[in-house]
What we know:
This protein has helices spanning 22-36, 71-86, 111-117, 121-131, 176-179, 213-227, 243-273, 276-299, 306-316, 320-335, 340-350, 352-364, 375-399, 401-409, 421-449, 451-469; strands spanning 2-6, 9-13, 60-65, 92-93, 98-99, 103-109, 134-142, 145-152, 165-169, 172-175, 180-186, 193-195, 198-207, 236-242. A hairpin with a 2-residue loop joins strand 1 (2-6) and strand 2. The strands form 5 sheets. Strands 3, 4, 5, 12, 13 and 14 form a 6-stranded antiparallel β-sheet that branches. Among the domains are: 1-49, no CATH class; 105-186, Multidrug efflux transporter AcrB TolC docking domain, DN and DC subdomains; 274-417, Multidrug efflux transporter AcrB transmembrane domain (Multidrug efflux transporter AcrB transmembrane fold, Up-down Bundle), CATH 1.20.1640; 422-477, no CATH class. 54% of the residues lie in helices and 17% in strands. By secondary structure, the chain is an alpha+beta fold.
Amino acid sequence: MESQSYNGVGVIKLFFRPSVTIATALAQVTAICQSQLRQLPPGTTAPLILSYSASTVPVLQIGLSSTRLSEQQLFDLGANTMRSQLATVQGAAVPWPYGGKVRLVSIDFDSAAMQAKGQSPTVVVNAVSAQNLILPSGTAKLGPLEYQVEMNGSTQTINELNDLPVKTVNGATTYIRDVAHVRDGFSPQTNIVRQDGHRSALLSVYKTGSASTLAIVHDVRAALSNMAAGLPPALKITPLFDQSIFVRAAVQGVIREAPTAACLTAAMILLFLGNWRSTLIIAISIPLAILVSIICLSALGETMNLMTLGGLALAVGILVDDATVEIENIERNRLLGKDLREAILHGAQEIAVPAFVSTLCICIVFVPMFFLSGVTRFLFVPLAEAVIFAMLASYLLSRTLVPTMVMFLLRNHNVHAQPGVFGHFHQRFENAFDRLRDSYRNALEACMRHGRALVAAFLALCVAWMGLAAPRPHMEE
Length: 477
C-alpha cells in the first residue's frame, strides 16, 4: 500500500500479488471505501477507484478548449457533464480531467470592513448556509387536489449572494457586499494543460476488464457525437490521442503479414518438393495450428493483443517443419517401392522421435520467459505461449491430419510419372541444387583432409583482421 497526499486530494495505491483475483479485490476495496466514507469529514467526495496494470494507458484522450469559456467552465463541463455520460460506455473508465480549474464559489472577506461592522467570518458563513437553501414546506390542498409546496431560498446567480443579509443591528442591516465579495472562483490549480498554446482541459478514457480497445473508442466517439448538441457551441472537442489507430494498424499489419508469410512459405515448399498436393497439405496445417494456439490462449484467459499476434506471426515460418519432414519422408519411402499406406506408416514412424525432439527444442527456448516477473512477465509470457501452443499443435497435426490428407490427396499420384512443365523446371532446380550440394561436400572433404592447414589459415586470418581493426596512433609534428 502506498499513500500520497496533495492539496485537497489523497491518492492511495494498492499493489496485489499475481495470484489475486482483481475483480474480487476491486469489489472488496469499493465496499470498504463506502463504509469508511461516513467517518471522513462532511463533504468529502466519494473515492474514484480505478484498476491499473502494466498495459493501462489511455485509449483515448480528449482535449477541451475554447476561446470564450474560462478554465473553470472547461473543467466543469468535462467533470460534471461529459464524464458522467462517457462513464456509461461499457468497458470505459473516465477519471477526473487534467488541467482546467476546479470551480469554486469563493467569498473574499474585507477585514477592515468586517472590523468596522463588528462582524466575523463565522457570521457570514452561517448567513450563506441558512439563506441559500431549497427546502420542502409542506402541501397545499385546493379543492380535491393536494399540491406539494417548496420554498426556493436559493439565488439565481452568484452575484445575488452579495445581497444576502448578514445581521441587523438597531435597524441597520449589514449585507454580504458590505463586508465581503462573492465571486465565481476556483481551487488552487495543481496542473496545467495547454493545447495549441492555450489553456485547456484534458479528459482521458481508460480501458477496464477485457473490453476491446476498438469497441471502446468507437462507442466513446459515438457518445461524443450525441452529447455535442447539449454542450455549449463555444466548446471545441478535439481527440488528441487515439490508441485505436495504432491497434488497428498493428492488427492489419499482422493480418497482412501472416498470409504473406504463409504464401512465401508455401512457394518455397512448392519449389523444393515440386508437388502442389504436398504444398496444399502443408499450407492447410498452418492456419489449423494457429487456430489451435488461439483456442488454448483463450482458455488461459489471454486476449488477442500485439504480443500474442506477434508470437503467432513468429511461428508461421516454423510451423511447416514437421509437416514438410513428414511428407518428404513419405515420398522417400514411396520411391523405395513401397505402397502408399506402407510408406505413410513407415515414414511417420521413422521421424516421430526426431520431429518431437526438434519441436521440444524450439519450445524450450521460450521456457525461461515463464520465470520472469513483473512487467516483463506480463508482456512476454503471452508471446511464448502463442509460439509453444502453435508448435505443439503443428506436431500433433503432423502425426494425425497430415498422414490422413496424404492418404487421400496422393492416392493417385505416381512418383515415377513423367514431369510436366513445372516438373521440368523443378527437375532443373533439383539438378542445380544437387551440384551445389556435391560442391559443398567436396569442399568439406578437402577441409577435413587438411584440417591443420585450415586451422592455421583461419587463425592467421583472424590475426590479420585484428591488426587491421586495431586503432593506429596519431603522429604529431
